[in-house]
Design brief:
64 residues; single chain
């Protein structure tokens, strides 16, 4: 089974810096393509997890 690998030190530092933000600001920040791209470049297994989740979601909707 595939899984998301643990975040590297740089990704953890980025996440720690976000702790002071409100939930709305965190959400807006994580919706920006360049922020997500940075996390994916630091940890490519995130993209694999997104693909797996999308496939699972489509199968679930087809079964409904």
């Amino acid at each position: 089974m595939r899984r998301v690998e643990p975040a590297c030190d740089m990704a953890m530092k980025m996440l720690d810096e976000m702790n002071s933000l409100s939930i709305d600001d965190k959400s807006r920040l994580m919706m920006r393509w360049n922020v997500i791209a940075t996390f994916i470049n630091l940890n490519p297994s995130i993209m694999e997890a997104i693909k797996l989740f999308n496939g699972w979601q489509m199968e679930r909707e087809a079964a409904a």
